[in-house]
Amino acid sequence: MNINQPGSSGSVLNEGEAPAAALDDAVVRARVDALLAQMTVEEKAGQITQYFDFLTSQDEAKRVEAEVAAGRAGSLLFVTDPEDINRLQRIAVEQTRLGIPLLFGFDIVHGFHTVMPVPIAMAASWDPELVEQGQAVAAAEARAIGLHWAFAPMVDIARDPRWGRLIESAGEDPYLGAAMAAAQVRGFQGPYLGSPDRVIAGPKHFAGYGAALGGRDYDEVNLSDSELWNVYLPPFKAAIDAGAGNVMTAYMGLNGIPATGNRWLLTTVLRGTLGFDGFVVTDAGAAADLTTHGVAADLTEAGVRALQAGVDMEMAPPFGQSAYKRLPEALADGRITMAELDTAVRRVLAAKIRMGLFEQPYVDIARARAVLSDPQHRAVARLAAERSVVLLRNENQLLPLNAEALRSVAVIGPFADAARDSSGPWIFAQDDQETVTVLAGIKAALGDQVQVAYSPGVSVPARQFRSIFESPEHKQAPRIEVDDESEIARAAELARGAEVAILVLGEAQIMIGENASRSSLDLPGRQQQLLDAVLATGTPTVLLLMSARPLDLKGSTPQALMTIWYPGTQGGTAIAYLLFGHVSPGGKLPFNWPRNIGQLPLPYARLKSHQPHKAEQRYWNEPNSPLYPFGFGLSYSSFAFVGLSFDRAEIAPGETLQVSVEVCNTGKCTADEVVQLYIHQRYGSAARPVRELKGFQRVTLEPGKRCTVQFALGPQQLRYWNAAARDWVQDESPFDVFVGSDSTAPLTASFAVRRAAPEV
């Protein structure tokens, strides 16, 4: 798979649009110094201010354009029409005193024109190379229309599925999360900042945002030292090591200190310990929010606190007042220094120089059309959807369905033909004509020889509290509304008369994402009744769950169950390929799937405690084990793991152990397996989890074929942050290694880490 050229020749930037190689640091510094020497204080403050520009709001658009014309804006977001981008850029470049171009940013979370599966789905592929290619497609499309910066990837660890932004994460595990974080940064940004066809990657939200109390978005976070360093920071470290040019702060307070005003977090940790050298931006309005948190008395003090904490650019609140616009006043009062202001401005100017914006600030609109219509982008989206689906249940091998033998199929559910929901959240310019729904994919696969009956089944309920995206600034998706009683009865009748029923249930895209936390894991509305009515017909039933959360089916057991996430532009085609056996599912869960909401949070990597043999009996009324474990996913084939071995039985601290295992396809079809390696440290200076993922590799094998998979276990995999020592440590200890297809893998062997005995 070519991850450096996601598109055809139409995706290669014109000469001069971006640097052909990384610019020399000294050259960048000199250019920044020259600009900085000419800038007024107001221009400096403006350069580190970013404004929303909702062009649908004329008054706000005029206000923002006035700031641009005065040289008091460094960046804009939410402008995605290339003609508007060129118009606004010309104001900045041709009408202001210094002609400094604007940075245009946008939430390019899982695609731009061509929509990939949502990030949690891409994590379920356990395929970093594919993830990198998917974000390279997104970057190519975004850059072609004039965007320079993605407010992504979101690399927050998510261990509570009530939290809506689970959908943007890679799930609950720091090792998998780190692999996905690095892959996304490489895809967005390429080998260096300013790579042709790429955009600035902005991992977010630093730090701990995914651990909000009760899974309630924006609420406070309280993390132990061990959790912060061992669980929540590794994906950020991986993103930074991959070269991320930007980091976004978090809204909430971390251990009582708002993240956007936390100098220890943004300077000591982010820059000092993790080695970040790009620019830091707030989340929308997070600098002004320091007044809300009660750590700043007014907007001026909020701006001062954010700047001195280490924030280089404020994303000003939409329709609100900028805290950084008050920085000239703070400088005049002696509350900040010119050096502090210049440091932030330098970082933003350096990013613009490295991105080549001074050489080529404008969009080639004809070329943009060619890039957006590149058919190779759709092929990547289809492959991504195929590889991300997780098969959770397949009783009596109902799947794959035999398309040659079928004569009638009932496709039922409110999300079977919902183009907007198939794409998931964070898609603001949805093209329904570009999106293949599940129903459309099934019809295309079966042709005219098979009768395909359809019913939406039930209505999609409205939210009790409106989403922030249900506003005039955003295009609204249609919501299915039917008479539930009569439509459930009709759907059951269709199922009764069909050879197989395919149900597509789940959550609408407006029910997940930012500002979309939920106190229940039940199917919304009357979908559970629809499911049970269809199952009661006795017709073999396949349930496709369109959701990012692990939903609770209340004990109902369809013969086949697949979680298809929100599969994107080519989701329907991919789902049909999977249903009818053109490909075998190979995705794996990136989180434990709980039996019900009362178990949350339920990470697989838990610590041993008193009476560990009774760990699954902590609740007296039901097992505490997950319904489906982390890493789980079925296939149409079967696999065996044998020959787990090490290159030696013992290593010294700092050395690396080589691990080998043989995997064999023992089934009857070509299929993928994700070989997963877990470790457990038996004892040391701190308690360690019962199992921790430390390696994985997705392999494709024909029937009867086998291959040897190798892993390395070195200091990076065996060390951990010790809260007592307040440092990274590697203990001497025996280690158990487990290899298999999920986190309950039974194949095991042991090695030891021991210091060599001193010579006598």
TrEMBL record:
Its EC number is 3.2.1.21. The keyword Signal applies. Coiled coil: none annotated. It is an enzyme of class 3 (hydrolase). It catalyses: Hydrolysis of terminal, non-reducing beta-D-glucosyl residues with release of beta-D-glucose. Keywords: Glycosidase, Hydrolase, Signal. One of its GO terms (molecular function) is beta-glucosidase activity. It comes from the Bacteria. Residues 673-743 form the Fibronectin type III-like domain. GO terms for biological process: glucan catabolic process. PANTHER family: LYSOSOMAL BETA GLUCOSIDASE, PERIPLASMIC BETA-GLUCOSIDASE-RELATED. Belongs to the glycosyl hydrolase 3 family. This is beta-glucosidase. It comes from Rhodopseudomonas faecalis.
